[in-house]
Amino acid sequence: MRTRHLMALFTGVLILAIILPISLSIWQAARQAKMQFYRELDDYSNRIVVRTLQVADQAREALREADAHTGSSCSPEHLLMLRRIAYTHRYVQEVLWLLNSVPQCSSLEDHSVAVTFPPPDHIASDGYRTWLTSINDLGLNHQMTAMASQQHMVMIDPISFIDVVPASEEKIHTMLFGLDHLKMVISSQPLPAKVWQRIKDPHLNMLTLDNTVYRIQRIPELGSGIVTWSSTLPLQQHIRQQLIFWLPAGIFTSLLATWLLLRLLRHLRSPRNSMLDALNSQAIQVHYQPIISLQDGKIAGAEALARWQQPDGTYLSPDIFIPLAEQTGLITQLTEDIVRKIFADLGPWLRQRPEVHISINLSVDDLRSPILPTLLHDQLQHWGIAAEQIILEITERGFVDPETTMPVIAHYRQAGHRISIDDFGTGYSSLSYLQKLDVDTLKIDKSFVDTLEYRPLTPHIIEMAKALNLTTVAEGVETESQRDWLRQHGVQYAQGWLYSKALPKESFIQWAEDNLHAH
Predict the structure, then answer these.
(1) One short Pfam family name for this protein (predicted)?
(2) Euclidean distance between CA atoms 299 and 389, whole angstroms
(3) Whole-model pTM above 0.70?
(4) Rounded distance between C-alpha atoms, residue 8 and residue 232, angstroms
(5) Is the per-residue pLDDT at 225 higher than 50?
(6) Nearest to residue 22, comparing CAs of 256, 263, 265?
(7) What is the CATH number of the domain that holds 402?
């Protein structure tokens, strides 16, 4: 993956690492608050259902006990039994004896008000009948829930069905209603009319309306329904409470993820990774600077120079990335990549122009590479190019340890390659054993060419090369006066901006062909 693509991906991941944990913590805080809100509402609604069933079961139990009486109706014994039933059953307020749906006596009065009860609001599957009624022996205008068997009736205060303390700190309201006629039995607070209209839907279990959540449950065996509801406005306070825990956790996670990603970024942006990415993405190109004969101006060859193109189109100086490749252990891989590109660029052309050579720079590490000799041999065979057309340039540092490097150089010479000392003169110690080196060409460094008239060492280098029968090439020739001086002193070849800068393959081939046709 190219570095810019990787960096774009990394930037996106970094942004997510900063935003996502905090966003998730806020989302989780809101989620927990909502879950708690709905859990408390559901819990309260379920407790109301349980209470309603408990009250109904107790009413049935009281009726069964009353129906078990076999003595005379409304006798002192009968009345005492009714009073005992009312006394021992928590939710039963009164027990009555009926004759043809007309109360005759009760646990409160020996003689009840003779009022005929209307048809029941609901008849259960077990035969028990229920009413919502204000009929009582005390003359009170108070709605009661009545449940009756064939002979007895119990009166229950509707508040018993919903007299449950919420576990929540927030206010939760509830209402008990009849399913058959949608009649309210008891409510802790008036239910809005538009909610009444909605709960007619038998499939509706949950409703959110006007910042309020309504929970609807139905008890078909009792013909009853229960609505519990609570405002969602306090949710914001609950969310803030949850944030006290979740937000620090999110911030910590975000900081930890950011720290880890920044460490990864430093690794990805390390010099070695940058160089490795450039090699893998083919960002390093090869340009060719012509080497010209000073006698007739004809091209003799070219030096292959690596160029690392940056994303903005500019080129990074080899003085920067070549030492970088050496320091990061990638110089051999870089050289192998350059060799492949040279043959891919110029293979067919070099086969047609056997008089032209290409100089390739080798580092000290390249001399230790077991792959490079084989690579050169295979490429020469593949393209049908003579080995003498590939000159290997080695800097003076490559000869510091002659016991190691000289056998390698000898192997290259036996294969047919010519050897050149690059940037000669930058290490004065080399002068003392130049005559011991098995080389063909000596390249005079640009620093000597720039100061030809002021550095007496340059003529000495040239004379020594002549004495050793070495070909000389001057680097960095930029003026005609430099050219003329070098030619007068016997230097055979030169390269520099006086002739041409380093060119891409197409431009170089065109330049070389024009030069060859002109000579």
Answers:
(1) EAL
(2) 13
(3) no
(4) 42
(5) yes
(6) 256
(7) 3.20.20.450
